[in-house]
Amino acid sequence: MGGLAEAQVVDAVDAVVRRDVPLAQALIVRDLRLDTLQSEVEQRALDLIERHRPVDVDLRRAISTLKLAMNLERCGDLARNIAKRSLVLSSGEPLLPLTGAIERMGRLVAARLREVLDAYAAGDVEPALDVWRRDGEVDEHYESLFRELLAFMTAHPGAVETGAHLLFVAKNLERIGDHATNIAEILHFQMTGRELIGERPKVSLPQLEGLKS
């Protein structure tokens, strides 16, 4: 599921940047596989809990698996939403100059997702914690891009529709970043038995003044 979700995110961004209709259409169909896998994972985890009544580490692993599957499936849904936006963008006005900022944000979010999945595969909580600590970086990109898109649309009224679609793309990427951070928290609980204490590192609005993506 992790590999499929990561690929969905990367391909969704590529579909937007390259205006690649076949890629977007294939991605939308592929998302059904993630839905199926989530159902399979959930059923197996629930069966394990019912039949074996696990405790301690095994129970944490089963519960964490349920949460992980849900977050990965949601990443796939958000990537599918981006792909649907790309289909609209491909038939409209030429893309805005800020498409490059969308691509950079997409690469950052995909990297965060890959890092937490690698941490899961390695059974190493520290890389997951590193993703958690850098949650604010995705927010920086989103807030900066949001403001630049609004400024561009104000200066170019004819680009409002295209800009609005890109705003939705950026928001979906920001939410995927949140899911990567969720996964980091889930892994920390699974591996240590403790919840992460404190709020996620965030960037305040005054800190974002003057930022450029």
From TrEMBL:
List localization entries: Cytoplasm
Signal peptide stretch: none
Q: Which GO terms describe its cellular component?
A: cytoplasm
**Domain PhoU: start-end pairs:** 1-85, 102-186
Pfam families xrefs: PhoU
Q: Would you kindly state one Gene Ontology biological process term found in this protein's UniProt entry? A: phosphate ion transport
The UniProt entry, under InterPro entries, shows: PhoU, PhoU-like_sf, PhoU_dom
**Record keywords:** Cytoplasm, Phosphate transport, Transport
Subunit details: Homodimer.
Q: Which PANTHER family match?
A: PHOSPHATE-SPECIFIC TRANSPORT SYSTEM ACCESSORY PROTEIN PHOU (PTHR42930)
What's this protein's family per the entry?
Answer: Belongs to the PhoU family.
Name under which the protein is recorded: Phosphate-specific transport system accessory protein PhoU
- Organism, by scientific name, is Phenylobacterium kunshanense
